[in-house]
Amino acid sequence: MNNIVLKSLAVENYASFADRIMFTTEIDSSKKEYLENTFEIADSRFNKVSILYGANGSGKTFFCKILREVKRLLDWSPLMAMNNSQLLSLPQFKGMDASVTPFVFDNKYRNKPTKFEIEIVIDKTTYHYEFNILGKKIESELLTKKYRRTEKLIERTSSSFKDIILRSELKDFENKKQAVKEEALCLPIAALLNNKLASKIVDAIQGIQIVSMTAARLKPTKSKESFSDERLEKYLDIIQKADPTIRDIKVSFEEEELARQKIEIDDFENREIIATKTTVGVDTAHAVYENGEETSTPISFFAEESLGTVKLFTALPYLFDVLESGGILFIDEIENGLHLLLAKEIIKLFINEETNPHHAQLICTSHQPLLVSGNFRRDQVWVTSKDNYGKSTLHRLNECKTSRAKVNLVNRLLEGAFGCNPDMFFESYI
What are the pLDDT digits (tens) for 408-423? Predict the structure, then answer.
């Protein structure tokens, strides 16, 4: 699905975000600078790249976890339709039934619901999806559609399925809504039961990729096409810049079915949930020289290569998946383990029209202010900060009332002008 745009993401009372924060990729239309960094769809203009900058512990990783939590709850809700202890005990389902964590540093937030909001554009139609959850129980749910006018498709006012109102393309789910339990969201259950619009929206949200460069190596994508011969040629060409001795890369891709469970509820049309495990193996051949002659020898890629090279290789499938087909990619700490210039190259891939013809979006977090040197719009850059009470906030640089001509973004970030730099950690020891 290459006509998907992330318009906004918001949360309230989650992790370090006590009060509502809202992130958007929609540009500030009053700023005409560097329009080549943007694209237009559905009468709106969006940034191709957005960067969240902030100190350690300011909330950058928790920002990425907002989307992870939405995806988890969309995954978990269909599992509520059955009760199979063997299936739910599998490692990939560990923690799927966890309670949502509210802001914990002020007792008044403990018994308040957490609110998640996500807004996406699919084929020029805007869908706004939000829900309130307290612990594990869904307290409200709303899905709206906007194409010329705004229309409510799902309106839920309590945890009971009886308080779910369905309209328009979701109306055919009316006689099956009793399958929605108190701890389940209505939208993914409707998708499970083959409602076309619900499936399209859930697939779009679940298709947003989130990776963390803090990991030693990224989890493999679940797409076998990511390791086609054509792709491996591209990966090899790139990896050889880091290790010129590499001559060949071979990847084995295996998908194993671990469990299968039918949904034992009337009118579920024999639907079933299948749990699988994907394993990706990597073998590389390297040049070895003796008396000027070259021979080839296999080397354990993950054991012998540098951490940065391994991170880069495992990130490449995610990059090319969205660049070649469109979509949205979140990268937490994009520069972690990579040279600054390499991280900047990745960002340029998304801004360049030739390498990003489908207007894929990159949202990344970073500690590195030098990433925003050069031709960056102020509305592409966000800053996170945390106060003395443990509350994180999120602000956009275009909210600052300073003329672009008088501002060097890198210098101002380094100077701490936007309140996002850390205090001096070792000041008392120096």
Answer: 666 665 555 555 555 5
